[in-house]
Every structure is written in structure tokens, then in C-alpha cells.
Specification:
With 316 residues, this protein is mostly helical. The chain has helices at 3-11, 15-40, 43-69, 84-112, 120-148, 151-180, 185-212, 219-235, 270-287, and strands spanning 243-252, 255-264, 291-299. The protein folds into two domains: 3-212, Cation efflux protein transmembrane domain (Alpha-lytic protease prodomain-like), CATH 1.20.1510.10; 219-299, Alpha-Beta Plaits. It has a three-stranded mixed beta sheet, with helices on one face. α9 (270-287) links the parallel β2 (255-264) and β3.
Length: 316
């Protein structure tokens, strides 16, 4: 059978189960890359193995945060615990940056005192095998992140993909050292690897900070919401008398939220207006799975006091 259907099946697993798999894969790659670095004496392969320890720590922390995020709302957290995933992404970014600094330090020491490489055949084979594991898992996690709208899964996938490209660069460098005999190229490559993963770590920290500050939904999703409002107004007899505005969206972990105002004629009964509002809420949630909608009813001609300068008007 083709690989893609298998990826789709694995991506449908729960975020907790996928992160448990990520922990196991991290342990396997630590062993493979650790042995590869030990037998070859390559600073590039050793730095690659050090990043695998970051993979393990970040996957374990992501597993804890996803478990927290799944807790139901309680008295102390009436809106739930969904933002816990952003702590996972930020923590992973910080770990990546820390690992990069450690790699640079070790590489500079080796650059000042270069050493020859050994047993490259076995070392390269083990490194390639570990990269295959990470690449397949990254593909599954990327697909699962879209299915579950999980930034924790996306962060883990981006880290693993960065690890794969790091390994590719290291392998090419080790081969270059073997062909040229330039042993100084190995630690220099390790420094380049560290700078690359540091960039990825900074990106994850930035994404986490934006999520904690209630970042708006992405433009394609907002476009779907706007189109749904237009279709809803056109599909009901009272559509010509309806008006929607002040639509504000945000994302918190796997949850997505939208707040807006629906203006109806002041002569309508509350029952009639509330029934139409319920139908609109259902239409929006059907259009964007996982969405939580809050609609405030207002009579036509009345404007609600703006709650923030960032309120985005959407009028029909």
C-alpha cells in the first residue's frame, strides 16, 4: 500500500499518543546517533546526537502540556487549559537554543584541536537510519497538527524536520572530510548546524509568544467565516434585515474562537432573534470544525461600545 494512507491513519491518533511515539523515537535516535558519534569521533555527528537529547526532553514536556491542555474547564480555569500547549512550544524553542550554544562551545574546542575521523561507514549508516525515523515521524506530526490544530505537535514536527536537515548537512560534511582530509571542516560544520537549529529555536519561541497573546485566526479561516456569514444572510428570508459586525477571532491551543455582533430589527421577539442566532452559530461551527462562537444580539441602529481598538468590523 502507498505510504500516504498510512500517514493519514497515524495522524488521526490523539496528540498524546503521537507524542508518546515521539518520545520512543527520540530514545532510539539518541542511541543510534550516540553510537555513530562515538565510533567516528566526529564532532558533527556528536552535535547531532546532542540535539536528539533535546528532542527527547521537548517531546516529554509536550506530552505533559498536551495532557494538561486536555483537562476540562474548572472553577479556577473557566475557559479551559488549552494554552498549555504554547508553553510546550516555547520550552522546546529554549531547549533548542541551549543545545545550540553547547554544540558551538564543543565545536570551538575541537576546532582549536582537530582530530581525525574513524569508522565512517558504520557511523554514517546509523545516522542515516535515525534520520529516516525522524523524517517519517515529522511527516506524521505535521499532518496530525493540521487535523488537531495543535501547536505542540507542529512544534515537535518542525524540530524533527530541522533535525533531519541537520543530519543531512552533517553527513555531507563528514563525507567531505573523508574525501579532502580537512579535519577542521568537521567542527566548522558543527557550528553551522548549531546556528541553524538556534534559528529554529528562536522561531518556536516567537510562535509561542504570539499564541499566548491571543493571536487572531489565520486569514484563510477568517475568509471562511466571512463567506459563511454572507451565505447565511442570503439564505434566510430575514437576511436583508440582518447585519453582522465587530467580528473578533482568536486561537488558544487546539481551540478556535470567534465573537461577533448580529443586528436584527428591534420589533422582533427575543425568541425569534435567539433562534436565528443559534442557527448562525451552528453554521459557523460546521464551516470551521472546533470553533467556539459567541454572538451578541443587538437591534438595528444600535452600536455596541467597542471593547478594543483591534476589533475588526465585518458588515453585511
Amino acid at each position: 500500500m502507498p505510504l500516504i494512507p498510512h500517514l493519514s491513519t497515524l495522524a488521526s491518533l490523539s496528540p498524546r499518543r503521537l507524542l508518546q511515539v515521539s518520545v520512543v523515537v527520540a530514545l532510539v535516535t539518541i542511541v543510534l546517533k550516540g553510537v555513530a558519534g562515538y565510533i567516528t569521533n566526529s564532532m558533527g555527528l556528536i552535535s547531532d546526537a546532542m540535539e536528539s537529547f533535546v528532542n527527547l526532553a521537548s517531546a516529554m514536556f509536550a506530552l505533559i502540556m498536551v495532557t494538561v491542555a486536555m483537562r476540562p474547564a474548572d472553577e479556577g480555569h473557566p475557559y479551559g487549559h488549552h494554552k498549555a500547549e504554547y508553553f510546550s512550544s516555547g520550552f522546546e524553542g529554549i531547549l533548542i537554543i541551549g543545545a545550540a550554544i553547547a554544540i558551538i562551545w564543543a565545536a570551538v574546542v575541537r576546532l582549536l584541536a582537530p582530530q581525525p575521523l574513524e569508522q565512517l561507514g558504520w557511523g554514517l549508516a546509523l545516522s542515516v537510519l535515525s534520520s529516516v525515523f525522524n523524517g517519517l515521524l515529522a511527516a506524521v506530526l505535521f499532518r496530525a497538527a493540521q487535523v488537531h490544530h495543535s501547536i505542540a505537535l507542529e512544534a515537535d514536527a518542525r524540530h524533527l524536520l530541522s533535525d533531519v536537515w541537520t543530519s543531512v548537512g552533517v553527513l555531507l560534511g563528514v563525507v567531505a572530510v573523508a574525501l579532502t582530509g580537512w579535519v577542521w571542516l568537521d567542527p566548522l560544520l558543527a557550528i553551522a548546524v548549531a546556528l541553524n537549529i538556534m534559528r529554529e529555536g528562536a522561531r518556536l519561541v516567537w510562535r509561542s509568544s504570539q499564541g499566548l497573546m491571543d493571536e487572531a485566526l489565520d486569514p484563510p479561516t477568517q475568509a471562511v467565516l466571512s463567506a459563511t456569514l454572507e451565505r447565511f444572510a442570503a439564505g434566510v428570508p430575514e437576511g436583508a434585515q440582518l447585519r453582522f459586525d465587530d467580528m473578533v477571532t482568536r486561537r488558544a491551543g487546539q481551540r478556535r474562537f470567534a465573537d461577533l455582533h448580529m443586528h436584527v430589527p428591534g420589533t422582533w421577539t427575543l425568541e425569534r432573534a435567539a433562534g436565528l442566532r443559534d442557527a448562525l452559530e451552528q453554521a459557523l461551527m460546521d464551516a470551521v470544525p472546533g470553533l467556539r462562537v459567541t454572538i451578541q444580539l443587538l437591534p438595528l441602529g444600535m452600536e455596541a461600545r467597542a471593547t478594543s481598538k483591534e476589533s475588526k468590523a465585518h458588515t453585511i
